[in-house]
Amino acid sequence: MSKHHKLIIVGSGPAGLTAALYAARANLNPVVFEGIQPGGQLTITTEVENFPAFPNGILGPELMELFRQQAHKFGATSIYLDIVSVDFSARPFLLRTDKEEYSADAVIVATGASAKWLGISSEAEYMGYGVSACATCDGFFFRNLEVVVVGGGDTAIEEATFLSKFASKVTIVHRRDALRATKIMQDKAQKNPKIGFVWDSVIDEILGKNEGGKKAVTGVRLKNVKTGATSILRTDGVFMGIGHKPNTELFVGQLDMDPVGYIMTREGSTRTSIQGVFAAGDVADSIYRQAITAAGSGCKAAIDAERWLESQHD
């Protein structure tokens, strides 16, 4: 395989693979670097019920495989290696894996963002079975149930407020004795009769059951950070509201980013601060973070890249 390509796409979630589909149909023969864990955040999602055209829902990994098959059908190619460094200082752009160097006339960055987690083993065990980092994605499953939200900033309050539309009770667990969220967000949460608070506490363990292969969260063990005392709080779900981190370490010093690390794009497009480099999906979206919006921006990035490449030959 040639190591030079018209278009290289870095990332293989809904944004990257939709970009690959549109670019392939435009005869750009895109190459997608999917990494060693391809498919993005949807590969750790069990049931996806809010993606159009799947009224009965679909498993996250299955949905991503369908994305991939469709992109490949029209001529996209996947390479299951991680890009470890890039050089966007001159064209063609250079991208390196641990093994080889590739060059490209244009690049679409679609490396996504990762939810921040607690890092405890039970969290991973019940991921998708009551543990989530996306209220918009999973809140519907907790209608008339009790849930816990971890955090004290705007993200946690937004998640808790949204979940209160479905859940019978929402408990915010915060390691401090006051919220860090903006005043208007705090007021909204404190006036909401469904939202309660546990202060000065962290989740020590997520408790659950596994009956006949069916996992479910049943509660959390809380630890008071001031006294060290532990207690059990019954709950049906645990939502992480401690924020997201864009996967942009690779592009520091190469592309303009906001203070958090999201890639900045020009308004109304997917163009970055470097001509010929485009950004799509959660890597440039701190607001919506949905599979459908990521796919839409992947489409836009492919069209932007195609038009930009055409302009280079005028």
TL;DR of this structure?
The chain is of the alpha/beta class. It is 24% helix and 28% strand.
What does this structure look like?
With 314 residues, this protein is an alpha/beta fold. The chain is 24% helix and 28% strand. The protein has 7 helices and 19 strands. The strands form 5 sheets. Strands 1, 2, 5, 6, 7, 8 and 19 form a 7-stranded mixed beta sheet that branches. A 5-stranded parallel beta sheet has the order 10-17-11-12-13.
Q: How far do the termini sit from each other?
A: 28 Å
Assess the beta-strand content as a share of residues. Answer: 25-35%
User: What is the typical, i.e. mean, pLDDT?
Assistant: 93
Biggest sheet descriptor: 7 strands, mixed
Order of helices and strands: EHEEEHEEEEEHEHEHEHEEEEEEEH
Rg estimate, integer Å = 21 Å
- The SS-based structural class is alpha/beta
Work out the helix count.
Answer: 7
The counted number of beta strands is 19
Shape: elongated
Helical amount among residues, as a percent range? 10-25%
Stretches where pLDDT falls below 50 for ≥5 residues?
none
Defining key terms:
314 residues; seven-stranded mixed beta sheet; 24% helix; 28% strand; elongated
Walk me through the topology.
Blueprint: E1 4-10, H1 14-25, E2 31-33, E3 47-48, E4 58-59, H2 60-73, E5 77-79, E6 85-87, E7 93-96, E8 101-109, E9 113-115, H3 121-125, E10 131-132, H4 135-138, E11 146-150, H5 154-163, E12 169-173, H6 183-191, E13 195-198, E14 201-211, E15 214-224, E16 230-234, E17 237-240, E18 244-246, E19 277-279, H7 291-311
Parallel strand pairs: 1-2, 1-8, 2-5, 8-19, 10-17, 11-12, 11-17, 12-13
Antiparallel strand pairs: 3-4, 6-7, 7-8, 9-18, 14-15, 15-16
